[in-house]
């Protein structure tokens, strides 16, 4: 047999180790003198503070004891079970550590073995203790919100920072400019000449009118929908439309208009089914859904893992401004977020599935609505039967009809009024079992084992019926039974053998029975009533950490939890009911004690008012994100939000009424040399209008804007029903497409030819801030697109109707509608010449294409 030199040397080394160990087993090992130098010289380069291969650090005791991505590497007293010893002593050159340079000597390997076998004593030095403190926890964003004592309004903080660089605020904007700015900024629409005339004498009082306008919610909902990646199609290959996704958009608009407290806004989007706000949970399933199914378990499992990843990462980024998604495969490289935290979050949301459910639009309490509406038809996945609390020691599930063959149930759960599944551990009795119980996958004992799926289920012995009974150790007060045919992760794989007729009975003594629920409370076919694409919920199975993010490599079980190192940690039992998980997560996020939540949302408001946030990475407050330009102002606004009942309109008022917001946007060369990006706000930062505001404004001035609110949206694409949806922009738009852009049935990853040129996001990913480019295509669209040509004609007709046949009056009316001012003498001469040569619609096209029309100054 041939051996390479490495193998021969390792064999000799191991022989030497055996001899050395035998002769010196009793000798004590001095860690600081004998072990620490080995770790520092040969291990820390790859497993230290700067680099952690395999998520392992060996530079301090606290880190080494945690182990790496494969678990513990040091098992005190057991070197043969310690990965550290096995890797340094390996005879396999592809596994031996360290991988570079000479392997450890036989004497060094013996020292490590003896050290581990003698208890792996690691005295902590001062350097150890200092290194074990996670410096990342000192990051500003993780610290509690503290209201600063040196400022009472927005301007105090802005002027103080400007003074540090010898700058000051600019002069106030003129009234016309300010009113136009406020209208676009707050409502997304230009003021009419009449509105301008009314507001110009008292712009301050106009702020309250604008905040009370129903247009306010339409404007600010569009910002929120960007952040949460909302669209009304699935994306991916098929990209089919979601006919009932629009209620979430309407929910957001109404929430902003009604100034719903932001903490409640959070709770409803994560657990709206607990607050009779069903449309709100459209947030959770607002992302893409791959509808291309497969019998391949690897593809199906990965699709489900990606869906949960979208929900987890969007929730964390939206409300907390953290990149939790980076911890899917390994501990976060920059922020104090271990992989376990990612999967704890997954456990909180693991019961959420994409899909539609009954939309309870009534304002009555949920239980009253439920009495008036039938429940959805039974499904192969989770079915829930709720009933008034009742005492019982026995629960019997009797099947009277089945979709095919012998009925099958994979899990039968009974919950008490504390939300505990009391079926676990109960005595199981069944009428009989398929094949006399000889099939290992189908046993009565699987009915309450806490595991889902066809492979651990009970099948009745007879076609069309059967009985399963649970007996508890003690009488329990119960109010809820859940059962399923195949509750596999990612959705049912088997839908045959489904119980379609059943009744649930309870008893105190096993003799006298009373019915608490049955299929009679359910619809016999499709669920009755309006549907909303806001997700469905079912009790999930155990959550496991996936090795390197691969769902085909599950590791240890992880309990539902929140962040362990940021804010106040919280973990739940592994059997916590599904809805209670989402409620707990929502309450943790919406707490005034959470250091991130209020800071993140007030910064978003600032971002959309000024074009850039105080933190210019609005969905990343981590160590790799930007630091706030005005940290005291950020905390001031956050504390104002909390102490004023989480009112977002209160924060809007603070900003809109400030001198900082109301100053001129005029350029100042001296100030620009100090602060070229206007981050210190020595002037109001001018910017181009968003794509939707450009289109809405064009419709508004042409007189064709339809202000109908709510309901299903309009489509900017030609209708087709292809298996893979094809999106072709409509050549012509009519009144049906003249509503505000927030009501477009927005498809994912597709943009129409007009809006696409103006940096409109495609909802393929969350977009907390938009790019703002300047391209020739934008000018060409405004000048030559079918939409621009059409609206120019409509505007010309309006001008003739309102100004009569006098061309000068027509031009003056055009300037009043579009710019809220009169034309200068030079502008009037040029406009008259253009109209004379090319007609009034040509002038309208030219005015649509001006910077003044599409920019906010």
UniProtKB/TrEMBL annotation:
Region called Disordered, residue ranges: 509-556
PROSITE patterns: CYTC, FA58C_3
Domain Cytochrome c, residue spans: 22-120
One of the record's GO molecular function terms: metal ion binding
SUPFAM superfamilies (UniProt xref): Galactose-binding domain-like
Signal peptide: 1-27
Protein name, entry field: PSD1 domain-containing protein
Naturally occurring in which organism (per UniProt): Humisphaera borealis
């Amino acid at each position: 047999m041939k051996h390479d030199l490495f193998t021969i040397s390792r064999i000799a080394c191991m022989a030497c180790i055996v001899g050395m160990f035998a002769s010196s087993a009793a000798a004590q090992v001095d860690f600081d003198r004998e072990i620490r130098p080995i770790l520092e010289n040969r291990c820390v380069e790859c497993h230290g503070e700067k680099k952690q291969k395999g998520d392992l650090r060996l530079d301090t005791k606290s880190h080494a004891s945690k182990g790496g991505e494969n678990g513990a590497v040091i098992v005190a007293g057991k070197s043969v079970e310690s990965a550290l010893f096995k890797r340094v002593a390996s005879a396999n050159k592809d596994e031996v550590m360290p991988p570079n340079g000479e392997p450890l000597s036989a004497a060094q390997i013996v020292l490590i073995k003896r050290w581990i076998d003698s208890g792996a004593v690691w005295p902590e030095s001062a350097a150890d203790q200092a290194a074990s403190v996670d410096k990342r926890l000192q990051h500003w964003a993780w610290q509690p919100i503290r209201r600063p004592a040196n400022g009472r309004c927005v301007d105090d903080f802005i002027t103080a920072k400007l003074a540090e660089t010898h700058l000051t605020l600019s002069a106030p904007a003129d009234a016309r400019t300010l009113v136009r700015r406020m209208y676009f900024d707050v409502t997304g629409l230009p003021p009419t000449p009449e509105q301008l005339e009314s507001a110009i004498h008292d712009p301050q009082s106009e702020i309250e009118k604008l905040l009370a306008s129903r247009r306010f919610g339409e404007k600010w909902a569009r910002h929120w929908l960007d952040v949460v990646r909302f669209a009304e199609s699935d994306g991916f290959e098929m990209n089919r439309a979601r006919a009932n996704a629009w209620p979430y958009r309407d929910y957001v608009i109404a929430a902003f208009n009604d100034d719903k407290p932001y903490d409640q806004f959070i709770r409803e989007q994560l657990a709206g089914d607990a607050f009779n706000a069903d449309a709100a949970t459209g947030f959770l399933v607002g992302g893409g859904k791959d509808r291309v199914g497969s019998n391949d378990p690897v593809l199906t499992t990965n699709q489900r893992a990606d869906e949960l990843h979208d929900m987890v990462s969007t929730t964390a980024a939206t409300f907390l401004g953290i990149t939790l998604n980076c911890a899917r495969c390994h501990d976060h490289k920059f922020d104090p977020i271990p992989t376990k935290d990612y999967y704890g979050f997954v456990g909180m949301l693991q019961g959420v599935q994409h899909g539609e459910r009954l939309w309870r639009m009534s304002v009555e309490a949920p239980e009253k609505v439920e009495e008036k509406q039938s429940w959805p038809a039974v499904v192969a996945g989770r079915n829930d039967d709720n009933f008034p609390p009742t005492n019982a020691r026995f629960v019997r599930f009797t099947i009277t009809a089945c979709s095919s063959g012998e009925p099958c149930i994979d899990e039968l759960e009974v919950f008490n009024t504390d939300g505990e599944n009391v079926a676990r551990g109960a005595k199981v009795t069944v009428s009989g079992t398929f094949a006399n119980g000889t099939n290992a996958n189908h046993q009565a004992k699987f009915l309450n084992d806490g595991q889902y799926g066809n492979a651990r289920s009970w099948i009745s012995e007879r076609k069309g019926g059967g009985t399963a009974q649970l007996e508890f150790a003690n009488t329990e007060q119960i109010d809820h039974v859940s059962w399923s045919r195949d509750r596999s992760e990612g959705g049912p794989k088997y839908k045959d053998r489904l119980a379609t007729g059943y009744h649930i009975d309870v008893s105190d003594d096993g003799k006298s029975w009373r019915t608490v629920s049955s299929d009679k409370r359910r619809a016999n076919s499709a669920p009755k009533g309006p549907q909303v694409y806001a997700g469905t919920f079912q009790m999930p199975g155990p959550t496991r950490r996936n090795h390197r993010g691969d769902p085909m490599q599950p590791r240890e079980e992880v309990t539902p939890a929140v962040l362990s190192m940021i804010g106040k940690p919280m973990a739940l039992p592994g059997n916590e009911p599904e809805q209670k998980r989402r409620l707990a997560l929502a309450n943790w996020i919406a707490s005034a004690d959470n250091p991130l939540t209020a800071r993140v949302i007030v910064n978003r408001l600032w971002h959309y008012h000024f074009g850039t946030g105080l933190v210019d990475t609005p969905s990343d407050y981590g160590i790799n994100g930007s630091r706030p330009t005005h940290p005291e102002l950020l905390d001031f606004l956050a504390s104002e939000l909390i102490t004023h009942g989480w009112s977002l309109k209160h924060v809007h008022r603070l900003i809109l009424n400030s001198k900082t917001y109301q100053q001129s946007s005029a350029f100042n060369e001296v100030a620009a040399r100090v602060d070229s990006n206007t981050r210190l706000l020595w002037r109001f930062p001018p910017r181009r209008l968003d794509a939707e505001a450009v289109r809405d404004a064009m419709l508004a001035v042409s007189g064709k804007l339809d202000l109908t609110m709510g309901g299903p949206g309009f489509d900017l694409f030609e209708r087709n029903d292809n298996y893979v949806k094809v999106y072709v922009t409509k050549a012509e738009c009519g009144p049906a497409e003249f509503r505000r852009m927030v009501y477009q049935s927005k498809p994912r990853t597709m943009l129409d030819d007009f809006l696409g040129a103006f940096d409109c996001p495609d909802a393929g990913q969350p977009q907390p801030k938009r790019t703002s480019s300047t391209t020739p295509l934008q000018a060409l669209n405004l000048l030559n697109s079918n939409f621009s040509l059409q609206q120019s004609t409509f505007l010309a007709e309006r001008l003739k109707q309102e100004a009569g046949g006098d061309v000068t009056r027509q031009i003056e009316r055009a300037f009043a509608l579009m710019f809220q001012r009169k034309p200068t003498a030079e502008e009037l001469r040029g406009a008259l010449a253009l109209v004379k040569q090319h007609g009034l619609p040509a002038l309208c096209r030219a005015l649509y294409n001006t910077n003044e029309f599409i920019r906010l100054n």
